[in-house]
Amino acid sequence: MIKFENVSFNYENGPDILKNINFTLAPGSYHFLSGPSGSGKTSLMSLLYLGHRPTSGRITMLSQDTKHMTREDFFSLRQKIGVVFQNYRLLNHLTAFDNVALPLRIQNKPEREIKSNVSELLDWVGLGDAQNSLPPTLSGGQQQRIAIARAVITRPKLLLADEPTGNLDSEMGYRLMRLFEQLNKMGTTTVIATHNQDIMERYKHSKLLLDNGSIYSNSKKDLLIKTIRDVY
């Protein structure tokens, strides 16, 4: 599904935030990504959703080398990735319904199908009565649920979520985690960046720890990645 080979990343020739990272995420796998502030989680998530390109190294996604993708390849691949951003990135001039419907409209789905699927999902996340509301009129938790609904509406091949339960009460947080679990069971490769230890303990998935630009598995003592040769 995803392969990083000797990937490093920095902003505008500054110090490397990610350092010579190598790892593979299998299709249909589920991972929690954690680490202290400044460890590089946001940068790694950005590389995963193609928001930035690596400073060096190679990233392969869905059998495509991202370094050599055409504009059409890039657009096609982005449509297979669902992203829940920490700052939501909703379009404030669109209603809750239209924000969630946007990925389906980009894919030219029939409006009848869009209406049914979007309404059902908004009901499920507790926003059935807010479908016609604009994001600025809603609370942070409500906006977060809209962002999650938008990310999963297309049943993406890859789901990336940055602190998806951060502004939600525990009941809604666990309900949305069950949604992620169901998507994963249907084949969606899932990466959840979180500091929530309760969630990571409750759901026994692989844990990736970023620390000082390097990535570890389950605990800092178990180095996951140094070189491809070490792992494979």
Provide a quick synopsis of the model.
This protein has helices spanning 41-48, 71-78, 96-106, 111-124, 140-152, 170-185, 197-202, 228-231; strands at residues 2-9, 18-25, 30-34, 56-61, 64-65, 81-84, 158-162, 189-193, 206-211, 214-217. It is an alpha/beta fold and 232 residues long. It is globular.
Task: Find the structural class using helix and strand composition.
Answer: alpha/beta
Which percent band covers the strand fraction? 15-25%
Fraction of helical residues: 25-40%
Spatial strand arrangement across the major sheet? 6-7-8-3-9-10
Overall geometric form: globular
Mean pLDDT across all amino acids: 87
Helix and strand sequence: EEEHEEHEHHHEHEHEEH
User: How many E strands?
Assistant: 10
User: End-to-end distance, in Å?
Assistant: 16 Å
Rounded to an integer, what's the Rg over CA atoms? 18 Å
In DSSP terms (H or I, runs of 4 or more residues), the helix count works out at: 8
Low-pLDDT sequence parts: 219-232
How is the biggest beta sheet arranged? 6 strands, mixed
How would you describe the oligomerization state of the chains in this entry?
single chain
